[in-house]
Amino acid sequence: MSSMSQPGFAGLADQITQLVSEIDIEEVVNSKDEAARFKALRAAQKLVIRLKKPGELASEATSELTAPTFFAKEGYHTPSTTYTPSNVARNTNLDFFSWMQKHPGPHEEFNIWMSAPELRLSAWIDWFPVRDHLLQSNDLNQDEILLVDIAGGIGQDLKALQKRYPDAKGRLVLQDMDKVVAQAVKEGLPDRIEAMAIDLFAPQPVQGARNYSINAVLHNWSDADAVTILKRIAAAMFSAGRSVLLINDVVLPDRDASLEQAAIDMNMMFVFGQAKERTERQWRALLTEAGLSVKKFWSPPSPGKGVVEAVKA
């Protein structure tokens, strides 16, 4: 087949853009016809693969396509290291985050993708009782910290919080890797949001904040690594419930997980190895080992990530 001309490709780009704009994302996500939805999803993923150049960010679709070959060679078990189907797709021995640190373009693409509105249909700030639980006393002065968003990407959650609750008192702190923080600043942060570069595995630099949050991060890590991250946060928290940790992540049922939940759990393994989605029982065990205790599990109004509310034990 001859290669497509530039005008022809531009036309295709316009068609794809128009098609995406006409899709009712919420209707798709809430569809009961999972077979049809996954068929459409796979078609879209194949399109993404065809449009990417060699060396660009390997999406979860690419990892899924390399998984059969990977497990046939390595054995049908959870990878014991960070070498996964994603490594095969990206042709590297580096783990996912180390590889992205060396590839600024794909890294920026990933950060933008993580902040996309389509991924935030059940964003915790939209449904969690923020005013009753984060702002209940709101006796903070402007020098005290209301919320530290750990590994908060380019600031999507803090921007949403400030927009929805402009009267909330206290400082807002965005934390992530240095390159992510630089991207957040470049794309623009409101004056009230402070950006801070951190290492998840180093001591938490902000001590005694009223609230800490961590969104879609712990499912990227093994139990041992997740406990280390949580211990760093716990060490910075006030005791007696004066500091609260909000973990925005999937909470799986102990039995009968949906097809979508199972697919997300498998994707964590395909990309990160021993990473996984967790059940209530697994979350409790993880938090207990880190010196924290579960205050409440909050379920979203529609399929998506819930909130695990935790305090220092």
Put the structure in a nutshell.
By secondary structure, the chain is α/β, with parallel strands linked by helices. Helices cover 46% and strands 15% of the residues.
- In angstroms, what separates the terminal alpha carbons? 64 Å
Low-confidence stretches: 1-5, 54-59
What structural category characterises the helix and strand content? alpha/beta
Number of strands: 9
Which H/E pattern describes the elements?
Answer: HHHHHHHHHEHEHEEHEEHEHEE
Overall pLDDT? 84
Helicity level, as a percent range?
Answer: 40-55%
Largest sheet report: 7 strands, mixed
Please report the number of helical segments: 14
Report strand %.
Answer: 5-15%
Molecular shape: globular
Major sheet strand order: 3-2-1-4-5-9-8
In words, what does this structure look like?
- With 313 residues, this protein is α/β, with parallel strands linked by helices.
- Helix content is 46%, strand content 15%.
- It has helices spanning 6-22, 25-29, 34-51, 60-74, 85-90, 96-101, 104-114, 124-127, 130-133, 156-164, 178-187, 223-236, 259-272, 280-289; strands at 145-150, 171-176, 193-197, 211-215, 244-249, 251-252, 278-279, 292-298, 306-312.
- It has a seven-stranded mixed beta sheet, sandwiched between helices. The chain has a two-stranded parallel ribbon with strand order 6-7.
- The chain is globular and about 55 Å long.
- It starts with 5 loop residues before the first helix and ends with a strand.
- Mean pLDDT is 84; it is low at 1-5 and 54-59.
